Fold this protein.
Amino acid sequence: MLTLLPSLLTLKSVIIGAVVGLLGYWLIRKVKMMKYKLPPGPLSIPLIGNLLQLKDGFWYEKFHELAKKHGPVISVYVGPRRWTILNTIEVVHEALVTKADDFADRPKTVSSDLLTEGGKDIALGKFGPRWRLHRKISSNAFRHYMMGEELELRTHNAVDIVSNELIKEKEAVDPKKYIELLVYNIMCGFCYGKSYDIDDPEFLWLMKENDALNKAVGSGLLEDFVPLLHYYPTQRFRKIKKDWDNLKMRIGYEKFREHENTFDPGNIRDFIDCLIKARKEAEEEEGEGKEIVSDLTETHLVMTLMDIFFAGYDTVRFTINWVLLHMAAFPEIQAKVHEEIDRVVGKDRPPQLADRPHLSYTEAVLHESMRLELALPLGVFHKTTCNTTVGGFDIPEASLVFINHWALHHDPDVWNEPNRFIPERFLNEDGKLGPKPKNWFPFSAGRRVCLGESVAKPELHLVFASLMQKFKVRMPLGIHADLSPGGNTFAGFPKPYNVFFEART
């Protein structure tokens, strides 16, 4: 027993030293920040911050309540790190539009480094020339391969595959798998030039792995809040890293290398080919082109591919899951959607993009579903690039800033009865889709506005209208739809539910 004493004393000394060091760090930062007029917020505990107040429930709702007491711009401490939360459209517009460059960066965290190989992607990458280059390449690919007839063809093919499976179902089913196959095939067609069946092993594997990772990462990683764990990661973190590395290899690197082996500059097939083409063109240029090549390594391009694939996959599947549940919960609203689609499109052809301006009620239903339930309630975090201000408060350089999209969508001063499902709030007196309300903010704004917004809106419309043309969705008799969120603070999706898909004739 005595032989253990030196080890125990050493461990005790390390723990005490670490705590004292962290307290010292916290005090130094506290003193340093005293020169700023920081946003107000609840009292916090050293090192722990406000984590005890945030431990239960959804943080976006708690931030919304804190804003009622402290104002639209609040400070919350998550561990030793201060977050600034923006809760009204006025301060959000000031930050993201008026002072766009000031709020354009992303913070470097353990989890972001894990997911992006050190920030080598678009969504979480550092604001600068490399980021602009990859965003430009991706925007060009969207214009060529995910708009107009290309988008219609991919969507109609994906809907047909899923519809053929749903027609076979005679009992109430959880639509999750079918929605994910539908969206997966749209994104695979764009990124890889492929589509899959419902029982394809690769699709089933991806669905399982992606759900597990969303659940694990979405609930937060302790390593992001406890600095010492950067060097001694938890077993949970190590498992997440192993799973993500496996997913990244199969969906990213392997697909990319397959395309490299079959690349034909005269036949650009999909998004991966666009990335390869951009790199080859840079390699052929002189001068500036050689500098660009260093930003187009295999790792950079695969991270951009992963960004585009999963951003399009997750947000669209969450949104379609919600809107189908809303249709089952409100059959009278669903009936109006059916009537409009039958009148404008009929039943002899699938909905097209040209029909969208004439399907105002259908679009309003989709908008209202996206207002009530967001795929990303707090968006993606921002980091300030310099000392700046918002709402009359100082925001120091390198501050972590969140946009509370959920608060914007539930502001009672903007939305009448914000918790009710009322599609008509998006229509004008003539029953047409009115101007976008300023507080409807699912795609963000400014430098970090959603890259895929121009694609996501028509894609969601085509998917929703096509499913509504083919099916009536209803809850089982005696079962009421549970509209309470089943996701987490950072990802919004419904609780599992079963519905009947009845073919419309």
